[in-house]
Amino acid sequence: MRYAIAIVMLFCATQVWAENVVVSDASARATAPGQESATVRFSITSKKDARLVAIVSPVAGAVEIHSMTHDNGVMKMRAIEFVQLPAGKMVKLGASGNHVMLLNLKYSLKAGDNVPLTITVEFADKRKEKINVNVEVKSLSPSRNEHEQHTH
Ligand SMILES: [Cu+2]
Predict the structure, then answer these.
(1) How far does residue 141's CA lie from ligand 1's centre (Å)?
(2) Helix residue ranges, H only, the chain
(3) CA distance 120 to 135
(4) Tens-of-pLDDT digits for all 152 residues of the chain?
(5) How big is the CA angle at 26 (ends 95 and 35), to the nearest 5 degrees?
(6) Rounded distance, CA 21 to CA 81, Å?
(7) How do the domains of the chain map onto residue ranges?
(8) pTM for the whole structure
(9) How far apart are CA 69 and CA 33, in angstroms?
(10) Residue 49 Cα, ligand 1 centroid: separation in angstroms?
(11) Closest Cα to residue 137, out of 117, 113, 107?
């Protein structure tokens, strides 16, 4: 019984905290045969100063946050630990700059699919909030972004 109460309390807490962060426009491109990674785009806004610290998805063996910089014309990507979310500012994660990648995909992403993503945000007071997002898979456009062809 005590366990059940704990779960209810946890649920209520999540409901309240979920109002601090809004995620919108989550999308990914359908993957080509043999492609094992995909970029996810979304916009995220936190009411309070926070950091995006972790992302998981059941369709991917790993999800990484990457930064991308150009160094003498060479594109460099590296995994970063977190993305800063300044209070009230919409942060966009896309195919360039900071972006999110699904790695070791367990199956191909097809247009029309919805991919679940759980985003963990940590506030300045160390409290965490998890946001569940549905990523809409869009059809593969002919002018596919270079980046999505890269293996990591
Ligand atoms: Cu990347």
Answers:
(1) 19
(2) 2-17
(3) 15
(4) 566 655 555 554 444 445 799 999 999 999 998 999 999 999 999 999 999 999 999 999 999 999 988 888 888 889 999 999 999 999 999 877 899 999 999 999 999 999 999 999 999 999 999 999 999 999 976 555 555 555 55
(5) 55
(6) 19
(7) 2-149
(8) 0.78
(9) 28
(10) 25
(11) 113
Domain 2-149 - what CATH class? Answer: mainly beta
Q: Which residues, 6 or more positions from 74, have their beta carbon under 8 angstroms from its beta carbon?
A: none
Distance 99 CA to ligand 1 centre (A): 6
Sign of CA dihedral 115, 31, 58, 68: negative
Nearest partner of 37 among 56, 68, 63, 69, judged by Cα: 63
CA–centroid distance, residue 61 to ligand 1 (Å) = 15
- Alpha carbon of 144 to ligand 1 centroid (Å): 15
Backbone phi and psi for residue 91, each to the nearest 5 degrees, phi listed first: -110, 125
* Ligand 1 centroid from CA 135, angstroms: 17
Interval between CA 145 and ligand 1 midpoint (Å): 12
Q: What is the distance in A from the centroid of ligand 1 to the CA of 14?
A: 30
CA distance 80 to 100: 10
